[in-house]
Amino acid sequence: MGLIEDARRGVVTEEMRIVAAAEGVTEDFVRRGVADGHIVIPVSPYRKVKICGIGEGLRTKVNASIGTSTDMVDVDMEIEKVRQAERAGADTLMELSTGGDFMEIRRRVVEATTLSVGSVPLYQAFIEAARKHGAVVHMEEDDLFRITAEQAKAGTNFMAIHTGINYETMKRLQNQGRHGGLVSRGGAFMTAWMLHNEKENPLYSEFDYLVEILKEHEVTLSFGNGMRAGAVHDATDRAQIQELLINAELADKAHEQGVQAIIEGPGHIPIDEIQTNVVLQKRVTNRKPFYMLGPLVTDIAPGYDDRVAAIGAALSSSYGADFICYVTPAEHLALPTPEEVYEGVMSSRIAAHVGDMIKLKKRDADLEMGHARRDLDWERQFAVAMNPERARAIRAERMPADTDGCTMCGDYCALKIVGRHFNF
Fold first, then answer.
1. How far is CA 390 from CA 25, 202, 337, in A?
2. Angle at CA 242, nearest 5°, toward 239 and 244?
3. What is the pLDDT of residues 45-70, one digit of tens each?
4. Global pTM?
5. Annotated binding residues for substrate, as ranges?
6. DSSP for residue 403
7. Cα separation of 368 and 374, whole Å?
8. How far apart are CA 92 and CA 60, in angstroms?
9. Binding positions for Zn(2+) (predicted)?
10. Strands 220-223 and 158-161
């Protein structure tokens, strides 16, 4: 019996209680959210995971993606990225390796964390086909489902699966074209395979079989966004919307059969289209949890894309996105370092909080910080800060002569000057 079945029968599970306590909502609110498909709680029968609720009425969560590439296979560095992501406060991880021994890398990542760990089984299936047969287009359909089950048994408890790429989606892409091309690795793999083999995407045509596997292993299904825009000029185009409509229908089907479902959203969106994307996504999916990839709101700031994405993520969260995939400063340039993973998570956490200030009216911490600054209470400021360690270090480096103030204002601290005449 899975969480959805329990929720439908009126049973409040331990996982639901943990989420309710962490989020400050009632247990029945969480139960109803799970039953209706508005909230997911990734779990695993194969390992103990830190319980994390994702969805409507809950705090916006942040995912950190890690993983090797064909150019850099350093598993110890990936484990350090796990540590840095956790240190920065990530809620979940995705292990997306494309180089090295996939199962060994994933085993070590899963052993290194209690966070929910996501994956994209399609990557391994296609890359193993390329290694064995010389090209990704020679991937065997059975291998795709076998690898999905193997990754689930290894403790991977949510998966991005590209079900919405089919002949209709490709037709939309071919008819309209793209300014930035097709940037999803999963989308590219599956599109190439379909064109070469003249066959439908097996994740779409054999969706019922896929659901059986995921249900057996209690995997949360995150519907991959293979047609996402890789340039702001491609945002909200026909291919993206076609894929969304297909995923929305399949997500309803998965939920009916007891598999928890998340819908992934597009990656590059100009600011004036973010609200449209969130509202549309929520409307057509019957308010399934929305996992926003970024989004990046301009294409011309490589090296600062964590900040670019934070702008988009804050707006996305405020309009109703539930889950944010971080972006690091190395995006579009290189595989990120552990330090860049840390920076990416912090940027996304700030963005998620800014969104929650609007979406959930969660402003108590900001109010406490305002009072602490008014009172020049530095220890209280550090306690409330999202990153106390960094705030404390910066102040310690440039400690003023008058330790009540700071070196920004020195002798002319506005709070001290006005404090002589007003009692706030």
1. 31, 48, 19
2. 110
3. 999 999 999 999 999 999 999 999 99
4. 0.96
5. 94, 123, 162, 184-186, 225-228, 264, 291
6. T
7. 10
8. 12
9. 268, 332
10. parallel
Q: Concatenated DSSP letters for 293-356? A: E--BS-SS-TT-HHHHHHHHHHHHHHHT--EEE---TTTTTSPPPHHHHHHHHHHHHHHHHHHH
Residues 77/334, Cβ–Cβ less than 8 Å: no
Q: Could you tell me which residues are annotated as the binding site?
A: 94, 123, 162, 184-186, 225-228, 264, 268, 291, 332, 406, 409, 413
Report pLDDT for 159. 98
Cβ(81)–Cβ(336) under 8 Å? yes
- CA–CA gap between residue 161 and residue 12 (Å, rounded): 29
Q: Give, in order, the Cα–Cα distances in Å from 275 to each of 37, 236, 279, 281, 321.
A: 21, 11, 6, 10, 10
Binding-site residue ranges for Zn(2+): 268, 332
Binding site listing for [4Fe-4S] cluster: 406, 409, 413
Rounded to 5 degrees, φ, ψ at 120 are -125, 95
pLDDT of residue 404: 87
Give the closest residue to 184 by CA, choosing from 226, 237, 247, 244: 226
The reported pLDDT for the residue numbered 150 is 97
Phi/psi region, residue 363 (left: phi>0; alpha: psi -120 to 50; beta: rest), is alpha
pLDDT number for residue 311: 98
CA distances from 240 to 66, 170, 276, 351 (A): 25, 10, 13, 24
Over residues 357-397, the pLDDT tens digits come to 999 999 999 999 999 999 999 999 999 999 999 999 999 99
Q: What is the DSSP string of 110-172?
A: HHT--SEEEE-HHHHHHHHHHHHHSSGGG--HHHHHHHHHHHHHTT--EEEE--S-SHHHHHH
Distance (Å, rounded) from C-alpha 422 to C-alpha 300?
47
Give residues with Cβ within 8 angstroms of 43, minimum separation 6: 3, 15, 49, 51, 157, 218, 220
278's tokens: 């969130």
CA 348: distance to chain centroid? 10
Q: Can you spell out the DSSP letters for 259-287?
A: --EEEE--SB--HHHHHHHHHHHHHHTTS
CB 151 within 8 A of CB 157: no
Return d(Cα 118, Cα 112) in angstroms, integer.
14
Q: Is 10 helix (H, G, I), strand (E, B) or coil?
A: coil
Note the pLDDT of residue 270: 98
For residue 295, give every residue at least 6 positions away whose Cβ sits within 8 Å of its Cβ, in sequence order, or none: 265, 266, 267, 268, 269, 274, 277, 309, 312, 313, 316
What three-state secondary structure class fits 358?
helix
